[in-house]
Amino acid sequence: MQRRGWHSTAAYIGLLAAAFVVAWLGSYRFFRAQLDNAAYDQIFRLYQPKPWQPQSAILAIDEATLARFGGMHIRQPLADALLLVAARCV
Fold first, then answer.
1. What are phi and psi of 25, to 5 degrees?
2. Cα 17 to Cα 11: distance, rounded to the nearest angstrom
3. Contact 57, 40 (CB under 8 A)
4. Which of 19, 39, 48, 65 has the maximum number of C-beta atoms within 10 A of its C-beta?
5. Helices (H), 3-74
6. Domain locations in the chain?
7. What confidence tens digit (pLDDT) does each residue in 35-46 have?
8. What is the pLDDT of residues 32-86, one digit of tens each?
9. How much is the pTM?
10. Are 74 and 61 in contact (CB under 8 A)?
11. What is the CA radius of gyration of the chain?
12. Is 13 helix (H, G, I), strand (E, B) or coil?
């Protein structure tokens, strides 16, 4: 078995130090954020997501609406609003 010379050992230590520096720089928040953004951009360029389709809608009734239409008299406006929302989601 042949022993390594100091040149190959120095090259190995230099490569190990370079890998350590790259890993150390990658741990910084700014540098890591840039890498994350670049990775996400590349992924979305390669695999574009499908267009977003709404699958649900929230129809909120607040106190002003209840005061305006009353408790039981809100059925018809609520039904009209639900029909309008359902027509837009289809």
1. -65, -35
2. 10
3. no
4. 65
5. 6-26, 29-46, 63-69
6. 6-46, 52-90
7. 788 888 999 889
8. 677 788 888 999 889 887 888 777 767 777 778 777 777 667 778 778 888 887 7
9. 0.30
10. yes
11. 31
12. helix
